[in-house]
Specification:
By secondary structure, this protein is an alpha+beta fold. 34% of the residues lie in helices and 14% in strands. It has helices at 3-15, 48-58, 95-108, 133-137, 146-151, 168-182, 195-209, 213-222, 253-256, 271-278, 291-297, 352-369, and strands at 28-29, 32-34, 64-69, 72-77, 89-90, 231-232, 267-269, 311-313, 318-325, 328-335, 340-346.
Length: 370
């Protein structure tokens, strides 16, 4: 799940676009359809539909690409399998921003504080008194990533007691035991991306709310925003929706093993629903999250280019994140000023999403500054 983040860091160096790490066409192409883009005061976006279509075609991107501005569709491409913006994908690490928002909602309710130390929730965790929830949220806890242990060899989660035959609760218990017995916090030394942070945060959400982490997010975020095509892999029950199947010969543990991506990458959604969520970050458009929560999520802690569950490109005013839950790769970005949202969802483990993401971002930045 971490190699996609490594790519984003490389992209930041190569393009300067990412921090931390015809205009009126109704034609359909073999990769999808385009619509006339809206014009924003910060730049003429009317030519983006053609440019995005060219980027999809040139990079042979077979996933779903979807762009919108202030909720209005600018561009959509269908996948090679006929999937579209209404198709459900595993969204991998895009899940982290929902977990972070849930923690802050609980803080707003007065039920926890991001300054709480971890021993409050895990009394037997050695060093838990040195690390705060804040450190987990912004990836500065120093706690080792449990997925590294699962990845030793070739996706062997059994090494930490996680099996395909276990229930989600059994796998969560095994993962928690392994984390508490085999990791030690080293907070605030540096930024270290670790899925363990968000596994533990999901556990905290359950302990504090008294309900499942999935139910709490459903109640406080998904349902109020009308994200009717969004849910969680382990409890998915929306049988009337089309769900993208993973492409490739290898079956990966993070998708097929219950709770293997709990809290850090276990959600499922569509491009349209993710656009609804991204609109929460547009200045003045938030409906569920308070201004204070948005401020905390999008703060650049220690100038690492990472907030709470989101990456930051302050040069362009962009909040973004990517995900890699093989074979699924995902990307979501939103320009908080202009309301421009870009979603990429792919169900095949290849490099085309990285290339098309770079090109579409370049095209947008050029149009924005024109």
């Amino acid at each position: 799940m971490k190699k996609w983040i490594a790519f984003l860091c490389a992209a930041a160096v190569m393009t300067g676009a990412l921090a931390g790490c015809g205009a009126q066409s109704q034609q359909s192409s073999e990769n999808g359809t385009t619509e006339q883009a809206a014009t924003d005061a910060s730049g003429d976006l009317s030519g983006l539909s053609d440019k995005f279509g060219a980027a999809v075609k040139q990079n042979e991107f077979e996933g779903v690409a979807y762009a919108a501005q202030n909720g209005e569709k600018l561009f959509e491409s269908e996948s090679g399998q006929g999937y579209n913006a209404d198709t459900v994908y595993h969204i991998a690490s895009l899940s982290k921003q929902f977990t972070a928002a849930a923690v802050l909602l609980l803080e707003e309710e007065g039920r926890l504080s991001v300054d709480d130390t971890l021993d409050k929730y895990f009394p037997d965790y050695s060093g838990g008194d040195t690390v705060r929830l804040h450190h987990l949220l912004c990836m500065r806890s120093g706690i080792a990533d449990y997925t590294d242990a699962m990845l030793e060899g070739a996706y062997v989660p059994e090494s930490i007691g996680v099996t395909a035959d276990n229930s989600a609760d059994e796998n969560r218990a095994a993962m928690e035991t392994w984390i508490l017995e085999n990791t030690t916090p080293a907070p605030d030394l540096n930024f270290t991306y670790s899925n363990t942070n968000y596994f533990l945060l999901a556990e905290v959400i359950e302990k504090v709310s008294g309900e499942s982490y999935e139910d709490y997010i459903n109640e406080k975020i998904i349902s109020p925003l009308g994200m009717n095509s969004t849910g969680f892999g382990d409890t998915w029950n929306k049988t009337d929706l089309t769900v993208a199947s993973g492409m490739g010969e290898t079956k990966y543990a993070f998708v097929t093993y219950p709770a293997a991506a709990y809290g850090s990458g276990d959600m499922m959604s569509t491009a349209k629903d993710l656009t609804i969520w991204a609109n929460e970050f547009i200045n003045g458009k938030n409906k569920v999250l308070s201004d204070l929560i948005i401020t905390k999520m999008t703060a650049n802690y220690e100038n690492a280019g990472y907030g709470y569950g989101v990456m930051l490109d302050e040069n362009h005013g962009i909040v973004h994140h990517a995900g890699n839950l093989p074979p699924f790769t995902t990307y979501l970005s939103v320009d908080r000023e202009t309301g421009f949202v870009l979603v990429l969802l792919d169900n095949a483990e290849d490099t085309s999403e990285k290339d098309v993401m770079q090109q579409m971002n370049k095209d947008y930045y050029a149009a924005k500054s024109a």
